[in-house]
Every structure is written in C-alpha cells, then in structure tokens.
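Entry 14: structure prediction run for Beta-glucosidase. Input pasted below.
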Amino acid sequence: MSQSSFPANFLFGSATSAYQVEGAAAEDGRTPSIWDTFCRTPGKVLGGDTGDVAVDHYHRWRDDVRLMADLNLNAYRFSISWSRVQPTGRGPAVQRGLDFYRSLVDELLAKGITPWITLYHWDLPQELEDAGGWPERATAERFAEYASLVAGALGDRVEHWTTLNEPWCSAYLGYGSGVHAPGRTDHADVLRAAHHLNLAHGLGTQALRAALPGRAQIGVSINPAAVRALTDDPDDLDARRRIDALANRIFDGPMLRGVYDEDLIQDTSRLTDWSFVKDGDLADIHQPLDALGINYYTPTLVSASADRKLPRRDGHGGGEQSPWPAAEDIAFHQTPGETTDMGWTIDPTGLHDLLMRYHRETGGIPLYITENGMACDDKPSPDGTVHDPDRIAYLRGHLDTVRRAIADGADVRGYFLWSLLDNFEWAYGYSKRFGTVYVDFESLERVPKSSARWYAEVARTGELPAPGALDAVDALDTVGDPVAD
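Run finished. Output tokens:
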C-alpha cells in the first residue's frame, strides 16, 4: 500500500441528520421534537429559521441517493427522527414513518451504499421533554424501547447502528448554555442529562443486541475534545485535566471503562452528589462495542483564569451562560491558525491526537470518523458552478491525518464527511454551509461543489491525491448533472 493509499474496504461516506435535512415536519404522523419547539421560541435560531422544510430530503431522497452514487460514496450515515416513528416517545411505532426509512435503506442498498443508522441526533420528542427530558431516568428507558422498535423494522437490512450522536452537545448545550434545544440553563441538570444519555446508550445497546442479528455492528458517536493547555503552568495543566473530564471522560469513562473518574465527581461535587447514578447503572452503560465514532472539528485550548468576564472562545455558541459545569475559573482561548466560517481553527493535529488516544484506550475497538467537515461561505459562480477550494484543502489535510494515524497503528476503518448537503445548521439556521453539495434554499436545487467532485475521486480510487492534482475539478465528468426541483 502506497503512502497515499487507504486500506482496502475503507469506507468513504457522508453524513446528515434527520431534523437538518428531512423537512415534512408535520407529515405522516410526525409530532414536534424539542427542535421544532426551540425554533419557534423567539431569539433562539438565527432569522427565525426552522427545519419545517429543511432541504426536503423526505420527498427528494431518491434523487439524493442517486447523488450519493454519482459521488462514489460507499456509505451513508443518517439519523432516524424519533418523533417520526414514535411520536410521543412511547407506545407503538407509526408504520408510515418506518416505511420512509425502509424505502431509503432499500434504495441505498440497491446502489451499493452501506446504510449507517444513528438512532438519536438531538431531536427528542417534545412530550418526553415535557416529562423532564434527559435529566430524567425515564427518558433513557424510553430510548431503549424506541431502539427496539427501529431495530425490529430495519434490522434485516441494516448492519451498522449508532446509539447516540454527540451526547456532550445534547447535555451541555441543551441543558447548560441553552444554545441548543430544549434551551435550559441548569448546570446540575447537565450532569444528570449526561448520565442518563450514557444510560440510554447502554440500555439501547442491550435492546439492539436483543433485536438484531448477530452480524450487527453497534457503536456510539462522541465528539471528544482535543484539550490543550495554554502554557505548562501547573494551573493551566489542571484546567486541561478538568475540561478533559467534563468533555471526554464523563462519557468514555462509563462507556469504555465502566466508571466515572473520581476527579470528575470531586470537581463537580458542589453541584451534585451524583446520587442519580444507581446500582447497576455503570454495568448497564459499559456494553461491548463494535465501533467507536469520533466527530472532530477543532482543538480546545484552555487556561486557568480568575477573570470570569473573559470572552469564552470554546466554539460552542455565544450563550450568556457557559455550558461547562463547575468551570467558571477556566478560560477558553482561540487556537492559532486559519478558521472556518464557524470561527473554528483548522488544525488536523487534534484529530490525530484523538485517534491515537482512543486507539490506546479502547482495547482495539475499530474507529470511524463519523463527522468531519468545514463551513464555508459558498456561492455559485456566474456559470452556476460552486467552487470551494478551501474545503478541498481542509478535507485533504484531515484525510491525510487519518491516513497517518492508520500508518501509526490506529484501526480506523471509515470517514464520514460532514455533510452531504447544505442544510439547517441548528441555532445558525441556514446561514452556515457545511455541504459538499450546494443547496439553493429557495428552489432546493442540488449542485455538487468542487469538493464533492474531489471527494468522489478519492472515494473511487482509495488514494489521496497530491496537493493540486485534482483541484481543477471542472475536468472531472464523473458526477451527474445538478438535481433540479
């Protein structure tokens, strides 16, 4: 294998989530999720945007799957809308909702694309939030029932399953800073939510194992922080330790090792006594995994600080309250270097650090990059094409980092680019474009960008081209015509 090659059978995929792309928010029995409610709360989402239509994937999925095939993708990671298949978060499934996913999966398989399901990507049914949401144990129990329903419907077709996407965001941004749905701001609830998300993962994994064939592969996608200290000062190093506990070990500790580390418990003891952790919970959470998904965008740089008025540059929105419990005396800094349209520093070394860390700590669980990508201010040229050379450079740098981690011994088996389509970007509405396929949000026309054509060639050959080799992508005619309304 050459230095530019990826292993045989390496997955080159792309990813989306249900609320960001599906639309059809009130069709076929779907009821509101916390994001439907959050979008209708004045001031929460830029421009008052909603996911009511999003990019209408619910009606345009055949064309979108054709696009994936044209772009040589061999895997597609997507999430199930809990509110679409179990509208109240309890009780029987709605078959019309499940039929949508059955049809989508069948079309993917017919095109030779591996379906990769995520059960929860932040869109909790509103009725479960009304009953207390993730700070309540019952929500984890409801999740296991939901997992069983979806597995029963799709388990004969789908082999790859992910329980949760980025539980850190669900807990910390939803219940801490309030910049994500449901918009609550209670640091004690952050810790309760984190535990019950962990428990949902464990109970959900057990439910999937009971319902799925033995060949099924079950994992979880986390967004670990590559935490770095501003200086070697002992106080800065301790700030790094504390944020590592809050960002990473609060999830990978129970999931991978069956423990909450004592320093995490001590650091947060003024907020909670952790009595919500019941006997048997850690054993339930610590389930054998077939895959660990790593979502990565930018490193985290911290220092100790007594000045609580310093701007917080942690990359997680500008809410008045920090998402970080018991960390008021820690400062977050912008890491040096070029930034994306999100203001996130472009630094692939953080991805390498994380891949090698989890290679060491998982005992050999296969790793997948389940999200990685760049927001750019993409605009069509006069001829209708969309050129995004900055994204090509970003993808090349991060894919090269993946290849280097593999050479260094990490068992990395796939890369899912975020995202397939420009879409609804949560509290930023439609103002940020992560897609390698441009979407005109008025006509909903899809146009592959330069980066889509570049990535298509990488997926086709399994080779990372030298810088500049494929940048003149207009010469590539391997991708189909734009998909119009």
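Notes: The chain is about 35% helix and 15% strand. Will compare against the previous run tomorrow.
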